[in-house]
Amino acid sequence: MHMADALLSPAVGGTFWAGTIGTIGYASKRLSARLDDRTVPLMGVLGAFIFTSQMINFTIPGTGSSGHLGGGMILAALLGPHAAFLVMSSVLTVQALFFADGGLLALGCNIWNLGIYPCFVAYPLIYKPLAGDGRSARRVLLASMAGGIVGLQMGAFSVVLQTLLSGKTELPFGTFALMMQPVHLAIGIVEGFVTAGVIGYVRASRPEILDGAASSAPLAAGISLRNVIVGFIALAVVAGGALSWFASAHPDGLERSVEKVTGKGELPGRGHGIPAALKSVQERTAFLPGYGFKPAAGAPKEKKQEIPAWPNVDAGTSLSGLIGGVLVLAVAFGIGWAVRALRGKDAA
Amino acid sequence: MSLEAAYSGIGRLDRLSYRDTVVHRLDPRAKVVATLLFVVVVVSFPKYEVLSLLPFFLFPVLIGALGGIPAGFIAKKVVAVSPFAVFVGIFNPLIDPATVAIAPGVAVSAGWVSFASILVKFALTISAALLLIATTSFPGICRGLRRLGLPALFVSQLLFLYRYLFVLVEEAMRVVRARDMRSFGKGSTGVRVFVRIVGTLFLRTVERAERIYGAMLARGFRGDLPSMRREALRPSDAVFVLAAGGFFALCRFVPVPQRIGSLLQGLAG
What we know:
- The complex is a heterodimer.
- Chain A folds into three domains: 5-249, Orthogonal Bundle (Arp2/3 complex 21 kDa subunit ARPC3), CATH 1.10.1760.20; 253-309, no CATH class; 315-348.
- Helix content of chain A is 75%, strand content 1%.
- Chain A is globular, with a radius of gyration of 24 Å.
- Chain A has 13 helices and two strands; from the N terminus they run H-H-E-E-H-H-H-H-H-H-H-H-H-H-H.
- Chain A has a two-stranded antiparallel ribbon.
- Chain A is mainly alpha-helical.
- The relative contact order of chain B is 0.14.
- In chain B, strand 1 (99-103) and strand 2 (106-109) form a beta hairpin.
- The chains are: A mainly alpha, B mainly alpha.
- At the A-B interface, helix 1, helix 2, strand 1, helix 4 and helix 7 of A face helix 1, helix 3, helix 4, helix 5 and helix 6 of B.
């Protein structure tokens, strides 16, 4: 579920980068204020641990497909939200560089989706209250499940929003959300199960690690609540900023996708149909005021307005464009080839 | 991606990043800034733009060629991570059926054009990111990020992660090999086995962290990883960033392929 550069607009990518960098700064500041120098190497090694565990596949029960660990929930339970967020950010950064998971602009979105939701929302609001002191295995399992599911659902929904706000795809909101959310429900359940399993395993064999982690990183309820509020304010600012940009600069993209959800019946991929109940929930919650779901009757008119938005290419200029494009590409790769050939001669 | 393949991929990028070429000698900050600029400019193109993106291939091609990075290696990695972008983009041709002429007599649906635009942007941004790490050592990038103002704690975190990654992955490879031998070639087993593996790995990790911490304390560790290097930006770094920036600006605001094409047509006619 890594977001990709190619699907992002600079405004959306930049906004999430700003939010992510701000949160990294905030978490670093909070953490270094009461940092036990023992935590630094522990965080580093745990980052390597999450990175490594993500590369080990396992079979998801009942499906036969393979899954891997997300890690945000485990880290938050072991280290507390601030340290967990920094570790998660570092893991995603290294993945973005070495595996090109998503790319550099999308890294801001990816840290946001996979770091902020589990660490600053799911952990303090769901995991912590449900798990209590973490001594009851059943409560830990329940808390990990709920936390894992909520964190991943928010992350997946965030991917949908980022993609649609960027307006590079035609995928309608409803279809995309209906594809993303159930898949991530399954992943969230597995994530919760694995988180609880690992915590249970660690508690059985080295209980002092968990107690040590909990005491060296005090996690008073007050602090967590403040994080959450800060998180939500940041989210509101980001969403507001991105939306207002969107509204002014690119009136097509989302409006068009939204219109398509309701306006046209014969969407491929929508064959199964969006349940009416779900649609009415969407309407009631009005997730984007001002981009309300248009009545089907208004759709054809919208479509006519769309046509001029497509740049009118007349065949003459488009032929010269094609010729130029092929030439430019040939020159670019030609230069590369020539440089390689010359360097090869030098080396020999 | 199997563990071994992923591991050897990281290892290969790491080894490439310690070569000594014109590109490798540039300051990490200059390369980070130029690459970010490149990515932002590329994705700033509207969704139906394909032709004007083509000149941008010159940047990754030149970096790769001057840096002596095998093109096939980068291309393979780009293809390997493409599924999500392809999956999301492939709906464009299905949903956006308005037709548009791309050449005299040839018309396709607009969705194919925007899909092609997504693929081109994908290839450009991902190859640029991979080439950044292939031509800049990871500690170098971390130093650059620190100088660019990222918090010291976060940069130490990146450095620690990277340092222990190789150790841990080798440990995990041993565990996974043992699992695969016992699962009779099924490749992977269920979640329960996975939980045990991760639990074991976690305990070994923590034990290792304790030893590392002791060793670091003995060497005077006080919470951060200061670097002795005092790097100043050289003129060549400035020239690189300015040249790259100028090229991006030119290609962003002037439709270079179209201009060249009409020039050629003018000459021919």
